[in-house]
Amino acid sequence: MITRPLDLESRLSPPPRDLDFFAWVNVVVIALFFVLLGSRFVLAPGVAIGVGDGGGIEPPSAGPSTTTPGPASMVVSVRRDNVILFEGGVYSLADLRKQMGDYTKNHSGAVLLVRADRQVSVQALLDLCEAAKSVGFANVLLAGESPAAENSPIR
Q1: Stretch 11-37: mean pLDDT
Q2: What are phi and psi for residue 68, nearest 5 degrees?
Q3: How far is it, in rounded angstroms, from Cα 113 to Cα 133?
Q4: Domains of the chain, with CATH numbers?
Q5: In what order do the strands lie in the sheet with 57-58?
Q6: Does residue 84 have a pLDDT over 80?
Q7: What's the CA gap between 6 and 14, in Å, rounded?
Q8: How far apart are CA 44 and CA 71, in angstroms?
Q9: Mapping DSSP to helix (H, G, I), strand (E, B) and coil, where does residue 41 land?
Q10: If we measure between CA atoms, which residue out of 114, 116, 108, 115 comes closest to residue 137?
Q11: Alpha-carbon distance 80 to 36, whole Å?
Q12: Per DSSP, what are the bridge partners of residue 111?
């Protein structure tokens, strides 16, 4: 090669063997993002609720599947007592029960996220949670919006 007659390779400095300061800062920032995005708040954007045998809401049992619920598998929005929005359609509870049953046949350990409006009664939420429990959902998460978000002009 052209560098051999002039012996230029001997005058080159060896590449550094350690990482510089900015490389370590990048590693720490990436690790921080993994920790934050893997937290329970990001994976489960709702409050876990359990449905007791008597039909009432109770805290979920302290089992390994309920202490750290995974990401929501199925998301439904409840606007009024008999108006349930799911995948672009409006369902009643009986129709949604069939959809949930079909979903849980293919996905064991699924988690249901219920986005409830202020017009929804507690009895309607209990009925939906009981239906989810009966078709085989492992966990039910309840999410709501703050009053400031509901009054904002941008939706």
Answers
A1: 85
A2: -130, 80
A3: 13
A4: 45-150 (3.30.420.270)
A5: 57-58, 47-51, 139-143, 111-116, 74-80, 83-86, 89-91
A6: yes
A7: 18
A8: 5
A9: helix
A10: 108
A11: 34
A12: 139
Tokens of 55: 């039909």
DSSP three-state, residue 137: coil
| Measured CA angle at 134 (ends 129, 138), to 5 deg | 70
Q: Confidence class of residue 67 from pLDDT cuts 50, 70 and 90? A: very low
Tokens of 82: 């008999």
Q: Is 38 helix (H, G, I), strand (E, B) or coil?
A: coil
Collapsing DSSP to helix, strand or coil, 37 comes out as: helix
For the chain, what is the largest distance between any 2 Cα atoms, rounded to a whole number of angstroms?
A: 91
For the chain, what is the mean pLDDT?
75
For residue 25, the one-letter residue type is V
Amino acid at 152: S
SS3 category, 112: strand
Q: Tens of pLDDT along 100-133?
A: 888 888 887 788 888 888 888 888 888 888 888 8
